[in-house]
Design goal:
With 190 residues, the chain is an alpha/beta fold. It has one domain: Rossmann fold (3-Layer(aba) Sandwich), CATH 3.40.50. The protein contains 7 helices and 6 strands; from the N terminus they run βααβαβαααβαββ. Strands 3-2-4-1-5-6 form a 6-stranded mixed β-sheet. Helix 3 links the parallel strand 2 and strand 3. Helix 2 packs across helix 3 and helix 6 packs across helix 7. The radius of gyration is 16 Å and the shape is globular.
Length: 190
């Protein structure tokens, strides 16, 4: 059976708003993040999913609940990138001491490597493909971008090119000529 994999990034948090890397720090959505999560639910209304997954972190779980999927199954495969020493730090701040630093190429000291997040992304895709059909995942920007790269059978560095805003929806699918990008980074109101 073919797979249509819908990816929903969590709503805004104070750290995502300020550009701070938010890996395993478990912080809530802002009021704007909650509002956009509800709007995301309006976009998803009427689509039937075989399975719905979520990261176990509260920002993803809350987005799933507000979007109408409170029973989404948590999986550690969808945890955000472990930023190690870069947790809570902005890319600009990192590049002050590491010019040219790129997450998907260079990784994080004390955190995950690009190879590890790519392996988790591949593991999630394998889980989603088990029964095929429409599958929905609520998670975080960097893991979802890695899922996009892995699904398209591109190297993990390809994820650098896949911008993903908060509360945005994307869809990857098995097409007639292989895996394709159905749509990417649609805001809830689009």
């Amino acid at each position: 059976m073919t797979l249509n994999l819908y990816l929903a990034r969590h709503g805004e948090t104070e750290w995502s708003k300020s550009g701070r890397h938010t890996g395993r720090t478990d912080i809530p959505l802002t009021p704007e993040g909650e509002s956009r999560a509800r709007q995301l639910g309006n976009r998803l209304r009427g689509i039937e999913f075989m399975r719905v997954y979520t990261s176990p972190l509260q920002r993803a779980r809350r987005t799933a609940a507000l979007a109408g999927f409170p029973e989404a199954a948590p999986t550690d495969l969808l945890l955000e990138y472990d930023y190690g020493q870069y947790e809570g730090v902005t890319t600009h701040e990192i590049r002050e001491t590491r010019p040219g630093w790129e997450l998907y190429r260079d990784g994080c000291p004390g955190g995950e490597t690009p190879a590890h997040i790519y392996e988790r992304a591949q593991g999630f895709i394998a889980e989603a493909q088990r029964d095929g059909g429409r599958v929905l995942a609520f998670a975080h920007g960097h893991i979802l971008r890695a899922v996009g790269a892995a699904f398209l059978e591109e190297p993990v560095e390809f994820a650098i090119r896949l911008n993903l805003d908060t509360a945005a929806l994307s869809m990857l699918q098995d097409g007639a000529h292989g895996r394709v990008l159905g749509f990417w980074n649609l805001a809830p109101g689009q």
